[in-house]
Amino acid sequence: MTAESKKLDQLIEQARQGKQSPQPERDLWGGIEQALVRSSRRPLQGFGWLWASAACMVLVVAGLTFNGLQQTEQAGVSQTQLLLTMLNQQHQQQRQLVLTHYQQVGWDGRSEFVKHELEQIRASIDEVSEQLMQEPSNQQLWQLLQWLYQKELELLESQFKETNPLQQV
Amino acid sequence: MNHAYKQILAMVLLLAIGLLAPQAIAKQQSVEQRMEVPTTIIVSLENMRGEVEIVGTDDNLAKVSGRLDEYATGLTFERDGNNLTIRVDMPKRGNFSGQQGSALRVELPRRAELHVTGVSSDFTVYNFSSQVRVNTVSGDIRAESLEGQLRLSTVSGDVQSRKLAGVIALKSVSGDVVDHASTASSASYTSTSGDVEVSTQAQEVTAESVSGDVEMELGAVMSLQIKSVSGDVSAQLQLLEQGRIEANSVSGNVELAFVGALDATLSADVSGGGTIINKLNDAQARESEWGVGANLETKLGNGAGHIELSTMSGDIIVANK
Question: Transmembrane residues, as ranges (chain A) (predicted)?
Fold first, then answer.
């Protein structure tokens, strides 16, 4: 008789005596609990990697997006700067044309007439240009800038006309 | 000795002639001329200095009367087809420092088209119903009871007008622009350092100023455009259905007072240190998250019209009258 058949006979005798649930020789719950915890941890550890990967992906995407946005923003700013520089240069050329035109026909434009207003307009052009760097999509500011350019040219012309009135007729 | 005396005498005589010659030129000529002209004659009128009064009449006559400039060499009064030239002729060069400019009265058919030019000449124009253009440098322009395409412009003088109708453009650089009782359909006012003071029924109005203040009493307006650098702008008006207002300033205040019902979307924007005061409804301006600047967006009535106001550092005030 083997040890297993002996144990089986022993269990049948215990059941006959009314002992319904055979008890284990030692407390197995601790091991079972650890096993359960371990088994429940396994899939979580897998998700962890997933989460970590996803987080990394998010970070990478966010990083790339942020970097892209930064570049777009910088590009936007530099485009505004570029446009403003171009407009200012164009305006300077127009100013020079007005000055050259009148000076070529011998008119003297050195005058105190509307000097204060010209200074105000030039200061305003700088002020509006600076604000446009902050608000490049502000349509009204662009229009105001264009108007200031035009106003400065008009005032330069009026300065010549006022200084050389006899040339009018 | 005799020879020396003769030389001295000759020099004295030459000097005397030189001194007396301008006095001779300085004598003012009186003129009184007239001619029959078509009622729709196109008139070109030039006068460098003095005062010219130009009056529209119901006759088909052109008349010039008065005194010419003390330095004038004559008066050109010529008709070529439908064109009439009236010109006070002056020497091409000279120091015109004398006080006596022209003092002329010109009568023309009411429907004549006028092109008037001067330097320091003042012009008074009234009672015409066609195109009137007046350009002077330091002279003043006064106009009354004109109708049609009207452009009155001076550099350092004032423009003062009453009862204008049609399409009008009034401009001065350092002078004031004052227009009252105007029934124009479209009106444009421009000043640089002078003030603009206006009462008009024009439906389309534009006003520009650099440092001068703009004060407007308007009627029912379809379109109003205002631009200013440092001058303050105030306007009282009724905005028509689907009307449009656009006002921009750098540091000047913008104040609008509305008469009657107002149906419009209002957008007000202050970029710098100014404030927005809304007395039209309960909507409050939102301060910028950066701490500088403010913005107000609100709908008034059915919101059919558009009001766009912006300033860099001025204040914006909107209210009911």
Answer: 48-69
Half-sphere exposure in the Cβ direction for A56 (13 Å, CA): 6
Q: Tell me the C-alpha distance between B206 and B214, whole Å.
A: 11
pLDDT digits (tens, 9 = 90+) for B227-239: 999 999 999 999 9
Does the structure show a pLDDT above 70 at B100?
yes
d(CA B229, CA B209): 7
Residues of B in contact with A148 (CB under 8 A): 229, 250
Q: Does B117 touch chain A (CB under 8 A)?
A: yes
For CA atoms A159, A163, A165, A167, the dihedral sign is: negative
Give the burial string for A107-145 (b: 16+ CB within 10 Å, else e): eebeeebbeebbebbeebbebbbebbeeebebebbbebb
Model ipTM value:
0.77
A169 CB-near residues (< 8 Å, 6+ apart)? B46, B48, B90, B117, B118, B119
Chain B: nearest CA to A52, how far in angstroms? 36
Task: Give the whole-angstrom CA distance, residue B150 versus residue B132.
Answer: 5
- Among B213, B198, B113, which residue's Cα sits nearest to residue B160? B198
Coil, strand or helix: which one is B68?
coil
Would you call A111 an interface residue with chain B, using a CB distance cutoff of 8 Å?
A: no
Which residues of chain A are modeled with pLDDT < 70? 1-5, 7-8, 11-77, 108-110, 164-169
Cβ atoms within 10 Å of B42's Cβ, excluding its own: 18
Collapse the DSSP code of A159 into the 3-class scheme (helix H, G, I; strand E, B; otherwise coil) and give the result: helix
Q: Is A116 on the interface with B (CB under 8 A)?
A: yes
Q: Which of B193, B232, B234, B189 is nearest to B211 (CA)?
A: B193
User: What does the DSSP 8-state code read for residue B4?
Assistant: H
Domain spans in chain A, listed from the N-terminal domain onward: 77-167
Half-sphere exposure of B136 (CA within 13 A, CB side): 28
Facing A147 at nearest CB: one of B96, B227, B312: B227
